[in-house]
Amino acid sequence: MRPVIEQSAAELARAVGAKEISARDVIEATLAQIDAVDGSVGAYITSLHEMARASALAVDRRIAAGEKMRLAGVPVAVKDNMCLAGTRTTCGSKILGDWIAPYTATAVQRIIEAGGIPVGKSNLDEFAMGSSCENSARGITRNPLALDRVPGGSSGGSAAAVASRQAVVGLGSDTGGSIREPAAFCGVTGFKPTYGRVSRYGLIAFASSLDQIGPLARTVEDAALIYEVMAGHDGMDSTSIDRDVEPAVTAMRSDLRGLRIGIVKEFDTGKLGHEIDALYKRAFADLRKLGADLVDVSLPTAEFGLATYYLIAPAECSSNLARFDGVRYGLRVDGADVGEMYERTRAAGFGPEVKRRILIGTYALSSGYYDAYYVKAQKVRTLIARDFQRAFEECDLIACPAASSPAFGFNAKSDPYSMYLMDYYTIPMSLAGLPALSVPCGSVTGEGAHEPLPMGLQLCGPLFSECALLGAAHAYEQASQHAKEYKLAI
Amino acid sequence: MPSQEIDIRYVAKLARIALTDEEVEVFGRQLGDLLGHVEALSELDTASIAATAQVVESRNVEREDVVSGCLERERVLEMAPQAQGVYFRVPRIIAEET
Amino acid sequence: MTQWESVIGIECHVELKTNSKMFCACPNEFGGEPNTKVCPVCLALPGALPVANKIAIEHMIRAGLAFGAEIPEFSKFDRKNYFYPDMPKDYQISQYAMPLTQGGAVRYWLADGSMKECRLTRIHLEEDTGKSLHAGTTGRIAGSSHSLIDFNRAGVPLMECVSEPELHSADEAIGYLEALKRTFVQLGISDVKMEEGSLRCDANVSIRPAASTELGTKAEIKNMNSFRSVHRAIESEIARQIEIVQSGGRVVQETRGWDEGAGRTHTMRSKEQTHDYRYFPDPDLVPVEVDRELVESIRTALPELPHERFARYRGHLKLTPAQATQLIEDAALGDYFDACVSASGHAQQSANFVLGDLARLANENRMALYDSPVRPEHVGELVRMVESKTINSKIAKDLIARMWAGDGSPAAIVEREGLAQSSDVGTIDPFIDEVLRANEKSVMDFRAGKTNVLGFLVGQVMKASAGKANPRIVQERMREKLG
Ligand SMILES: [Mg+2]
Ligand SMILES: [Zn+2]
Questions:
Q1: C241, C219 in Cβ contact below 8 A?
Q2: Quick check: is A178 catalytic?
Q3: Cα(C203)–Cα(C233) distance, rounded to whole angstroms?
Q4: Which residue among A238, A331, A346 sits closest to B17, beta carbon to beta carbon?
């Protein structure tokens, strides 16, 4: 038997369910790995050793009582923008102080009910705003495959935890690429379901119309399993979709015969340099080898995604983050009157990226600019969604890069716009609400890198095509086995 | 698209964030840059296009009018940066805003 | 000298009567221990999300239909962004672009019975804020050292009713407000208790030369906590504006607070401090597509509305404006009255009893008439007996007391106890003769021209006959005998 921390969620849940190993042993092995490596990785803001041990005992009792659980004993990293009752929840910000969530997010609750065990609250760019985890007020996370590089963001903590075996699976949230980009950077699979598939109740909002919870995992099958457990209607979230969740785990396939996969004309990988271009050309060729028909598709308005996103997401965030005002919870910096208290609290509590986005969003919604910026962006959003609809008349799935480069070094993107560009390939799908994932597709040698760095292939499908998407990703993953090339630097 | 100079202090006032002079300068410039990039959207003719507020078109998601449990006051006030007795306490309110 | 016309528009916030709050399952109840009716949603804890209350939406449709408003096919929720410590999310979920009701009109009446109409701009659905107590001084915001907040009320469903500026006096404003209040109570969608804060209103007041059709500069008056203070505040504000203009000044657009003690309005904030609310569609909520069948079923189930009842009472039943108003004020009393009328066939006499002796008894016993043992059928019998002269008013009074005490059908009592009035001369004459014999002095006075003693003599006969003699016949016979 392979070491516990190397096993997949599916394997562990089966073994724990069959009493071949106890949940307690699984958790102890995981906590030992956390103790051994997280000092150099920094995946977690808060580790939950005591709670995890108690939960493991509870799972073992449930097993003893004959209960069947799909995630029995599976150690899970929970991004620290999701509420878990009784744990500190920080969003990577100073403004929440040591706030202890009094309730649990629906998605997390479903994981726990299925026997999953949160082992830590993982790091993120403050309020999920960023692509490197450098924007966290609670410290940086290092890429476990190259410690001098970022793990990506904003779900960088969960991606790094999963890659470094500090959890079997991780929960992330994706607003414009925040699951897919760190998955690509850390050499794991990251999956953003269709908007509304997984309840947002208890996910601390960044941009409500874009936020979506999804899994990060070392295998596509594990991602499918976690997705299946979390997905489905929730009466606590008005935007949660009331529609059956088709079984994803059983949709895994071994070839791509009969699938038309679209290659986006506008996403010319030639612009990404020879090495990256060659990597994606190879990945596309591998898809064909597996039986897929590659077809050219066009997304003429996709290039406007970034500009659209950087109006809509900040506008929503400017309003969503108003509640952090020093009145009911979290940080307060006192002032002579309430107004001064607000301004000082928010000045001290939010980091520069959050302030920047709140200011952009406030401006885009303010009197005289609303139509020109916010409404205009919403209209372009319609165009982008239509482009995808048209493309999906000619193909079943779309394949493209998950990010334009591998993990970069710390402080490499000091200009905000250059950081925003990291989401170029992931934002259009977010705007259209589409399910999309990143799966390992090899590695390249980044600038000044000592080791080859992972890259991710993004696959995306029409609304609610989760099963087709995960099934195809599994076929590619199994045939290519790229994850095996990645070596931990710890 | 409007290309006026951004009154960053006014925007920060609306957003209730105190800015240093340096932040006014830096954020002002960065916002200007971003809006410059956003300018590109004006190329697109959207006159007859409907705005998308939500991608998945649900309608009439409503709760039954049923009461269920509340949080315990003790736990609620534990969270408060400042509480007094059974209330949340805030510094004086200068002007009526509603 | 210029004649001035005042122009008034009213904005009301009315709390809806539901079991739970607008977007969460906390109870919607007045009062209670501070900060006990809160949950992650209405406290705006990180990650919590709103889900709209179905009944609140139905109540809005009810309100709209009652005023003849248009119920659009499509409606949605917007966020109104501004910071205030008793507003947990620092935005209010409201309806800006597409409210649930648009247009319509409130029909109301004045004390003289004249019917008026004031059009509505809209009624939209929103959520209430918490409550701030301003500490350190008088409980007022000015001069307080800090504030204490109770979030129990945060998230209670609220409808905002905005009128067109079509009211022209404080009396009209009150007539309008009373009509709103009666209608909401009648519909069962709000308790409309100003003292509990379930109705709050602001008035926009301006003046203009009587002949003009242009609107003058308005002041928005706030902090009025009873209909009486609304009336006083509007009158005082109109007087203030006229004085300014007549002395050559200009009214400035501003928000003014009503000072109950001082009896005048004072500046709260001027136009320059207006807000940039940055309304945008709330991405946490989905649009409402109003089901036409639901609208029709609500329309069909609408009760008779206060203005309709007023028209009926005034027109067909010929009640006075005061009687009609009193009966409409308490719809259950009105229903009771209607049952009395259908039992008696006599509106005015029924009104006299219901609003007279019966109302007095109800008041003395601190009990609603319709909860008393007096059934409308009993009142009907009583009225019919009075109208047919079977009993006189004195017996009627006695019967009312006995009905109240639970003695049941007045017709049965009259029958049982032989209380029916007599018009038979053969029965009445002996009583008259007896009285005339016993009151020689009065007889002489009458004959000397002091005709007012007649009443006394008739009274004596009534007494002697134990109230059963028909007073009209007694009077006739008496005159003849005194001749
Ligand atoms: Mg309002
Ligand atoms: Zn609540």
A1: yes
A2: yes
A3: 9
A4: A346
Phi, psi of B24 (to 5 degrees): -60, -45
The pTM of this model reads: 0.92
Summarised one tens digit per residue, pLDDT across range C112-150 is 999 999 999 999 999 999 999 987 766 667 678 899 999
Q: Which fold has domain A4-251?
A: Amidase signature (AS) enzymes (3.90.1300)
Residue A313's closest chain C neighbor by CA?
C283
Q: Residue A87 and residue A79: Cα distance in Å, rounded? A: 12
Chain B residues with CB-CB distance to C285 below 8 A: 61
Q: Helices H, strands E: what count in chain A?
A: 16, 11
- Rounded to an integer, what distance in angstroms lies between the CA atom of residue C414 and that of residue C395? 9
CA of C42 to the centre of ligand 2 (A): 4
**ipTM value:** 0.97
Q: Would you say C223 and C213 are in contact if contact means Cβ atoms under 8 Å apart?
A: no
Could you tell me how far CA C394 lies from the centroid of its own chain? 34
pLDDT at position A207? 98
CA B83 – ligand 2 centroid, Å: 19
Rounded CA gap, A316 and A357, in Å? 10
Closest ligand to C-alpha of residue C94 is 1
Model confidence band, residue C466 (pLDDT cutoffs 50, 70, 90): confident
Query: Look-up: residue for tokens 């209350």?
Result: C53
Structural domain boundaries of chain A? 4-251
Task: Please report, to the nearest 10 degrees, the dihedral formed by the alpha carbons of residues A104, A106, A109, A115 taken in order.
Answer: -160
Contacts A350 to C, Cβ<8 Å: none
Asked if the Cβ–Cβ distance from A338 to C147 is below 8 Å, we say yes
Residue ranges of the domains in chain C?
4-295, 330-417, 425-482
Q: Do B88 and A327 touch (CB under 8 A)?
A: yes
Distance CA A249, CA A70 (A): 11
Measure the CA angle with vertex C159, ends C157 and C160; round to 5°: 140
At the top level of CATH, the class of C425-482 is: mainly alpha
Q: Contact C234/C203 with Cβ under 8 angstroms?
A: yes
**In sequence order, what are the residues at sequence separation of 6 or more whose Cβ sits closer than 8 angstroms to the Cβ of residue A481?**
none
Is the dihedral angle over the CA atoms A200, A203, A205, A207 positive or is it negative? Answer: negative
Instruction: Choose, from A131, A178, A318, A480, the residue flagged as catalytic.
Output: A178
**Distance from Cα C49 to the centre of ligand 2, integer Å:** 10
- For A370, the 3-state DSSP assignment is helix
Tell me the nearest-neighbour CA distance from C29 into chain B, angstroms: 11
